[in-house]
Write a structure and sequence with these properties.
The protein has 730 residues and is an alpha+beta fold. It contains 23 helices and 31 strands. Helix 5 packs across helix 8. The structure holds 1-deoxymannojirimycin. The site of 1-deoxymannojirimycin has 9 residues, from loops. 1-deoxymannojirimycin (DMJ) binds next to loops.
């Protein structure tokens, strides 16, 4: 299995090799799970699925989503607007469409047939509603295509299921594809982030088309669904558009680092946000390069993936951590927290055959779930909660499944069992499963996103199933980012559309993984318990018994040029003192005797950051605060969760908190002199996190006379549209 797959081999053969690598199972010394135990957990997963899907169909259908606390459907326009998350809701019975192929995987063929009938007869796609192009593509177009592939397969089996089916889902997919196409009408070829299903983008009735930016994943996660649609329908335009968008992202990569940023201007292709990681904003762009190669057999995608992957492993992956760096200056970390979306990455590394870092990062994530029950939306590099929400995301289950396939290590069955137990104990409610608002308090949110049914149950069920117990040969399919199933046979059974093959892949340096996926035996010869050996070093990352990190030193550059103070004085003013290290640079800590740094250049001090080893056994209890928007049209209905600062007035001791009108700082980052200091005086200032020191921003705003400050993650502004463009909001 260590052999290179030669480039003229058929695509299907390449896939078989990848699959075989995944299936390489080694004898293990760890106690394995008995067949009975596995099937008991499988039954439990089916019972949970019935509860979730049954509740959606009973209380919510035909609405897009279930509100599991109110036991009713979420209909867009009838519930308070939640910002960008609502752009998934297109009045097209989202959850049913997203769930269809899960019904087949779980062998619920009667329910699948009934579900398909309802979709065909009752769902309309011409609604006057503005939806996210990305979400509609992965959830609805992917859902329709996955279900069509299943329906077609069942019909051909002639066992009585789907005999009436005449490609109706494919016709719907094609209609939806045409409704998404207007989004690609930009000079760059990068799609608009939103489209009106009835009126497109630029028509006067569309209520969209003014956006100038989109996220990298939003533009780069179209190729699987659009290529499948082209190959199934014979209309090449979809694959051409998706390929063009990928070509632009590739052209725009930072040539020095081979990394991409998180947000890009759709008109001129300039990077709007230059932070680069593998989580929110970028994640499935990388995933789709790899999987486009698997599904379509075009080497160009693999070459691109490999180039990016080398950069990720050089700058972003610091096992077990996955950091975010600046794409132009990738030795600079841009934040000290990770987001939960990156939990898919070990699964992608398994596809690449890079098992060691996959095992390491997965183990780190497992430790975080042990400490906080679920993966919080964001957690710090010391594994504390940064943002406590958990919307029942499936990425950790996804990686667990892939690692089990690759290693056969029963440890991953144990991880799967813990996911099942936690969902039942902490998320199950009488009308389904509810998202967790804050893992620290366990409070619920009235939402059950469609991906919970599309992905979570598929991966969990597959984890506990033998191949022979499944109604399909799962190794013949590629999972889309929403876990919809597309057959690898698409690459050979249906010829690529005209113009849809790129010749002459760029030359990249070959390594062991360039065209092949080495097996565990190649990577860890004669070591059947390699996975355990790797994991053991990361067992006590969090909580009691945590061992000090083995290599906590990482070079960073502190940008100290924006505050008008001497660097040493500035660090001191923040309570940071410097300690000499043997190599002549300086270490930073919050105690110890201050010493002059050895050198400074261009206003940038080179220092080494030494992670402090906490002696606290338990996580410091942080009580989240509420930010309530009380002016019309919100009238107190919109409440956001916020983490309190570790300085300033203790708001929990103020009977009524702080009330005031809100003014956005100019510049929004508050990283240089405030242009609207007068306006900010006596008001609550809102500023973006990042770009410069937190304390420097706080000081600037305090000097302007604000009565409070809200710092907001750029991610939130982008994902949830929390800050209106007007400078005032009450
Ligand atoms: C899913 O809709 C997809 O997996 C997507 O790529 C990002 N994450 C959500 C689930 O967390």
């Amino acid at each position: 299995m260590g052999e290179r797959v030669v480039s003229d081999m058929g695509v299907f053969e390449k896939w078989v090799l990848l699959v075989s690598a995944l299936c390489t199972v080694c004898p293990l010394q760890v106690r394995s799970m008995s067949k009975e135990e596995k099937s008991k957990i499988r039954d439990q997963i089916v019972e949970m699925f019935d509860h979730a899907y049954g509740s959606y169909m009973k209380y919510a259908y035909p609405a897009d989503e279930l509100m599991p606390l109110s036991c009713r459907g979420r209909v867009r326009g009838l519930e308070p607007n939640r910002g960008d998350i609502d752009d998934s809701l297109g009045k097209f019975s989202l959850t049913l469409i997203d769930t269809l192929d899960t019904l087949v995987v779980l062998n619920k063929l009667e329910e699948f047939e009934a579900g398909v009938r309802r979709v065909v007869q009752e769902v309309r796609l011409d609604n006057d509603v503005v939806v996210s192009v990305f979400e509609t593509n992965i959830r609805v177009l992917g859902g329709l295509l996955g279900a069509h592939v299943m329906a077609d397969m069942l019909r051909k089996r002639a066992e009585g299921h789907m005999a009436w089916y005449r490609d109706e889902l494919l016709h719907m997919a094609r209609e939806l594809g045409h409704r998404l196409l207007p989004a690609f009408n930009t000079t760059s070829g990068l799609p608009y982030p939103r489209v009106n299903l009835r009126h497109g983008v630029l028509s006067p009735l569309s209520r969209t088309g003014t956006e100038s930016d989109t996220c990298t994943a939003c533009a780069g996660t179209m190729i699987l669904e659009f290529a499948a649609l082209s190959r199934l329908s014979g209309e090449s335009v979809f694959e051409e558009q998706a390929r063009r968008a990928l070509d632009v992202l590739w052209e725009k990569r930072q040539r020095g680092s081979d990394l991409v940023g998180t947000v890009i201007n759709i008109h001129n292709g300039d990077w709007v946000r230059r932070d680069s990681g593998v989580g929110a904003g970028i994640d499935s762009y990388y995933e789709y390069l790899m999987k486009a190669y698997i599904l379509l057999g075009d080497d160009v995608y693999l070459e691109r993936f490999n180039t990016h992957y080398a950069a990720i492993m050089k700058y972003i992956s610091q096992p077990p951590l996955l950091l975010s760096v600046h794409m132009h200056n990738p030795t600079v970390s841009v934040r000290s927290w990770m987001d939960s979306l990156l939990a898919f990455f070990p699964g992608l590394q398994v596809l690449r055959g890079d098992l060691k870092p996959a095992i390491e990062t997965h183990e780190m994530l497992y430790q975080v779930t042990k400490q906080h029950k679920f993966l919080p939306e964001a957690f710090t590099t010391e594994f504390r909660v940064h943002w406590g929400q958990h919307p029942l995301r499936p990425e950790f289950a996804e990686s667990t499944y892939f690692l089990y396939k690759a290693t056969g290590d029963p440890h991953y069955l144990g991880v799967g069992r813990s996911i099942v137990e936690k969902l039942n104990t902490h998320a199950r409610v009488p009308c389904g499963f509810a998202a967790v608002q804050d893992v620290r308090t366990g409070t619920h949110e009235d939402r059950m996103d469609s991906f919970f049914l599309a992905e979570m149950f598929k991966y969990l069920y597959l984890l506990f199933s033998e191949k022979s117990e499944l109604p399909i040969d799962i190794d013949h399919y590629v999972f889309t980012t929403e876990a919809h199933l597309l057959p690898v046979s698409l690459s050979t059974a249906l010829s690529p559309c005209r113009h849809n093959r790129t010749n002459g892949p760029p030359a990249v340096e070959d390594d062991l993984f360039t065209h092949s996926c080495p097996s565990a035996q190649t990577l860890f010869p004669n070591n059947p318990s390699f996975a355990k050996t790797i994991r053991d070093s990361y067992k006590y990352l969090t909580g009691a018994g945590a061992a000090p990190p083995s290599s906590p030193i990482r070079g960073i550059e502190l940008p100290l040029h924006d505050n008008g103070m001497e660097p040493m004085e500035f660090l001191k003013s923040m309570g940071i003192s410097l300690t000499p290290l043997s190599d002549g640079s300086v270490g930073v800590s919050s105690s110890g005797s201050p010493l002059e740094p050895s050198s400074s250049q261009n206003g940038v001090y080179r220092v080494k950051l030494i992670a402090e080893v906490t002696t606290e056994e338990e996580e410091e209890a942080v009580v989240p605060l509420a930010v309530q928007i009380i002016s019309p049209p919100f009238l107190g209905r919109t409440v956001l969760t916020a983490g309190p600062a570790k300085f300033g007035m203790d708001l929990t001791k103020q009977e009524h908190g702080v009330k005031g009108s809100v003014v956005r700082s100019v510049p929004f980052s508050a990283c240089s002199v405030l242009e609207n200091a007068v306006e900010l005086h006596g008001r609550v200032g809102v500023a973006l996190r990042g770009d410069c020191m937190f304390a420097a921003k706080a000081r600037r705003l305090q000097e302007a006379g604000v009565i409070g400050i809200i710092f907001i993650d750029p991610l939130q502004v982008q994902v949830q549209g929390l800050i209106p463009h007007r400078s005032h909001d009450h």
